[in-house]
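Budget justification note: compute hours in this period were largely spent on complex prediction jobs such as the one shown. Inputs:
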Amino acid sequence: MAPIATATTPALAPAASAAIPLTELRPGAVARLLETRVDAECRAQLRALGLTDACTVRLCKHGEPCIIQVRTTRIGLSKAVASGVFVIPDPDPDPVS
Amino acid sequence: MAAVTRPASAVVATTTAAARVALIGNPNTGKTTLFNALCGARAKTSNFPGTTTSIRRGRAELTPGLPTEFIDLPGLYELQHDAPETRIARQVLDDVAGDGLDAVVVVVDACNLTRNLVLVAELLTHRPPVVVALNMVDLARRRGLELDADALARRLGVPVVPMVARRGTGLPELRAIIGEAVARRTPQIRPLDLPGRDAPLEVATEWADGIVAEATVSAAVAATVDTATERLDRVLTDPVLGLLAFGLIMCGLFWALFTLATVPMDLIEATFSQLGGFIEASFPAGPVRDLLTSGLVGGIAGTVVFLPQICILFFLITLLEDTGYLARAAFVMDGLLARFGLPGHAFVPLLTSHACALPGIMSTRLIPDRRDRLATILVAPFMSCSARLPVYVLLTSLLFADRPALAGLAFAGCYVLGGSAALLTARLFGRTVLRGTARPMVLELPSYKTPSLRNALLTARDQGLAFLRTAGTIIVAICVIMWWLSAYPQVATPDSATALRLQAATPGVEAGEARALLDEADLLEARAAQAGSFAGRAGRLVQPVFEPLGFDWQLTVGVLTSFLAREVFVSTMSVLAGAQGDGDVDEGVIARIRGMTREDGRPVFTAATAAAALVFFVLAMQCLPTLAVTRKETGTARYAVLQLGYMSGLAYVAAFVVYQGLHALGVS
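Corresponding output:
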């Protein structure tokens, strides 16, 4: 696979440079969705399940499947998809958890 | 508008029902449970015209004197998504054929309100009146989420009925409200801020979020983290523990399937054999009696005998699906199956096909993606089904006469060969006919729930009926044709048989000896009839094709007649060998078949021939009922033809390689 470009335009640089794929997010961490680098069909599926732009995602479990929670929906993603979902980790972790 | 007469619709079958109500909702919202509660056992499953997506329709009296047709639309998340189920839903909602829906009931999961309201927003932009069934409020309450249904109704401008469909709570209220919506056909009070039909999902989601906030009385933070689900998921999707749990659950499932199916299957076989006996006793001998007993009763029995397995399988799978486990299991198997271009969902159909490919192929309905579903259907018949068992027993014992350990090994090898052929074929098809790989899996992991027995029973009944209606009729027709081919033209009684009968009738011959002579005569007649029939003649005609595999004409007849169903091979071979023509593989039958000779006196089953025949039967598509079901489930004869051509071709080539290879090694 080609190396992943970190930024496309200077304006996006600060956000995009902090973006990591779901596979690198700490379990239990909360993050905001930046973009999904997956095929159109898969993106449509993710969006239908609630993974809309800038939504909040909580990572429940790594591996195969990677389990995330968007609002109250738990979604299982195969690793291939999870590595294409880029999020910006929440800098201020939820004090409750 | 409703007064305009239009031609009968192809989209939703025209009926005399006064009211027409569609049920729609996200997957896992309990929509089917609600549908079953509304219509009870009066539902019918059928394919949506021109598609292989099945929808269910049912009729019930909504309120006394108001007959209503309910249409259970396939589960979907939103209407913009381009998929078969959304296209069907849009067609029904947009009233393409002018049938006029009187109301739409949208089933909403109280625990996942925001995402569910996105669909509600989309529905509100359509014409039919909307009623919201706010389902699973008990589950939400248990998670500390209290919703104000009235506030929700005011905000959405449509009635909202809180309910627990599984327990029937809120059902009378829902019926009454649908009745009102149908009767009054009141225009919707569209919320002023309702996102437009083509608004991006983000806008609709934000709108839904706002409404949820307004309608929530108390939402514990705990609602967002469900620890019990979290723990269960960690175990059930773990690479090691998950696989272990999967193995245990599947063993349990198939143990239950086989144990539970034996009794009704035996009962069916006994009943039909009694029926056959009754007909035999009450009709004079002749072609009509033969047609009734061997053709029709045999054909129907051969179809109905699959019914217990199909019903029980669907009953168990529906229970398992209802618990929420199947979504987890799909992930556990996905890693393995994806390498061969099959989806994780394929495990149930493939495992089931070890019992019988018919229920296996029917259960591919669990697979959401069409390409993935086709790939699974095409390879499922490679799995060694129970009909191959008697053939394997016969051929392995011919191959390794006095070495049971080797016979057992060869037996297990057949299962491995079938399974590997399925996986490799899936991979091959993924690069050719069904270009593409299995879709990387993205699945909602529904909440764990207690399954509904009623749902499972109704699904089992529906699938059983669907099988009898479509596949059943074809299978019976095929059975009658195959019977005719192997029974006609009737040949004259061979002289040797006549001589034996005369000898038996001679005065002075003991009763026991006479019986033996008559039996011998019967066998000679059966053998002559088999050889002289169309199937027998075809065997001789086609034999040159099978010559390179080492098959003589008798073995070729066995292959041809078993095209109906593999187990017929054993009874055909035993008839040809001059044994009793039943399908039981016992020592006597094996010994007789081993003693069969070719016209030049060499044995029919040399080691090389037996091995080639074994490989042939593992791989060949010797099952017409399966082809009928493939045609039905894929919606086109093309895939049935591909399945037949590919499997037969592969079986031929593999058997050729085995026979010639063994020959080259000096094994005759």
